[in-house]
């Protein structure tokens, strides 16, 4: 897999990781089906949105973005924020509080998120490619390492 394909996979991980990883000191709130505006649901979305800020800062520092690379970096960061926003908006539109969705509902939701992931990966790649092309050899090596596909992924 090329570094640019790996970059897309990394962004997908950054977006999905806050959804599935729960901090030990922050138990997930369970609601009794009060709809998308329920407090537990909103808390998860807020955490996902706030996590992207840290991921963007981490990548910028690790990749040692130079002042000359800032315009291209801004497009990468915006692509990451747009992905999280798309996931949040789609999540809010889904029915909440059901005990178990039907098979058709479940498959439909999975298809929606698969489409979002593909769209997000394409958006990230389009933004990342020009930035990657501007990298020094050291920056490219760092990016290649950060976005490398691991056997356990």
Molecular structure report:
The protein has one domain (3-19, 37-94, 102-146). Helix content is 71%, strand content 0%. It is mainly alpha-helical and 153 residues long. The protein contains five helices and no strands. The relative contact order is 0.19. It is elongated, with a radius of gyration of 17 Å. Residues 3-42 have low confidence and may be disordered. The two termini are 13 Å apart.
Ordered list of secondary-structure elements with their pairings:
Elements: H1 3-20, H2 39-62, H3 70-93, H4 103-134, H5 137-146
Helix pairs in contact: 1-2, 1-4, 2-3, 3-4
In short:
By secondary structure, the chain is mainly alpha-helical.
Report the major sheet.
none
Radius of gyration: 17 Å
Give average pLDDT, whole number.
75
Structural category? mainly alpha
What fraction strand?
Answer: under 5%
Q: If helices are DSSP runs of H or I spanning 4 or more residues, what is the number of helices?
A: 5
The quaternary structure here is: single chain
- What is the overall shape? elongated
> Based on DSSP secondary structure assignment, what is the total number of beta strands?
0
Low-confidence stretches: 3-42
Distance between the termini: 13 Å
């Amino acid at each position: 897999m090329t570094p640019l394909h790996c970059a897309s996979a990394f962004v997908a991980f950054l977006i999905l990781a806050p959804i599935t990883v729960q901090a030990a000191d922050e138990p997930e709130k369970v609601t009794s089906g009060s709809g998308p505006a329920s407090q537990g649901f909103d808390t998860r979305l807020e955490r996902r949105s706030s996590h992207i800020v840290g991921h963007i800062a981490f990548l910028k520092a690790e990749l040692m973005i130079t002042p000359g690379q800032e315009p291209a970096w801004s497009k990468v960061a915006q692509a990451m924020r747009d992905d999280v926003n798309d996931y949040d908006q789609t999540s809010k539109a889904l029915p909440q509080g059901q005990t178990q969705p039907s098979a058709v509902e479940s498959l439909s939701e999975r298809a929606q998120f698969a489409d979002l992931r593909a769209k997000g990966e394409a958006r990230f790649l389009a933004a990342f490619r020009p930035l990657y092309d501007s990298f020094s050899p050291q920056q490219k090596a760092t990016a290649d390492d950060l976005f490398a596909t691991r056997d356990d992924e």
